[in-house]
Amino acid sequence: METTDLEAFLSRAKALCVLTGSGISQESGIPTFRGNDGLWKQYRAEVLATPGAFARDPKLVWEWYAWRREIIHRAQPNAAHQALVELEAEFSARPGGRFALLTQNVDGLHERAGTGNLIRLHGDIWRLRCTGCGAERQDYSVPLDRLPPHCSFCFSLLRPAVVWFGESLPQEEWARAADVSASADLFLVIGTSALVQPAASLPLLAKQNGGLLIEINPAPTPLSGLADLAIRGKAAEVLGGLSSRIPDA
Ligand code: NAD
Ligand code: ZN
Fold first, then answer.
1. Is the peptide bond before 149 cis (omega within 30 degrees of 0)?
2. What is the pTM of this model?
3. Which ligand has the minimum distance to the alpha carbon of residue 136?
4. Which residues are known to be catalytic?
5. Ligand 1 centroid from CA 22, angstroms
6. Which of 4, 141, 223, 240 could disulfide-pair with 194, CB 3.0 to 4.6 Å?
């Protein structure tokens, strides 16, 4: 089987850090935010995923989340999610090898595929948080009963436990993400427009600390010029069956 540059980079690395965005789940049928398929009714995702939109019209925002939960509920992890599980196994077996997966996705497909060392930067669409008392719980029901949902303890509005535009990232996850990024000798960025901060700064942190950077995305991004290798392709097509093609170092 032919060995490409990607496999050669992977065979030489010790500490692999991967950052994924919504593009990795596109081939599972989940719309990205900035693609045309991300539109719901006439609304753009960037307008709905904000604290302001929720304050103005919680029912509208919840209807959009209910629509997304339905799509995600039907979706399955694809060959790219699977390839990252295999890479984790491969790196964990190497002497001194390390693997971490940082995701901006809220869909839970990395967990379902079986990734172990996963840092969720933007929360979880299957988790609800009370805007009054702060109580959180998992909720996988599709469809949700009555929108918008309310807290059974204090009757305040519940919101999805995800990070909206303009909100800060969970502190502990961010600290761990910055740490593993800075110590990665290879950083792989898959399916992110690299426009949403601060997640988009993690690949730069890796580069500043001497790590090599690979990007997999069908479209160019602000990171492409910095990448040591920019692969223009879809995640599942590029990564499918990858681990069997990595030569021994
Ligand atoms: P984005 O919508 O801004 O960018 C998606 C990127 O994926 C684009 O650069 C696009 O060219 C690329 N892409 C499209 N199809 C691809 C494919 N098959 N393979 C590889 N790349 C592909 O998404 P983002 O950068 O993740 O940032 C937006 C925010 O959207 C994130 O914070 C995330 O929380 C949220 N989001 C998550 C999901 C999800 O959980 N699946 C879905 C939509 C949005
Ligand atoms: Zn409450």
1. no
2. 0.96
3. 2
4. 122
5. 3
6. 223
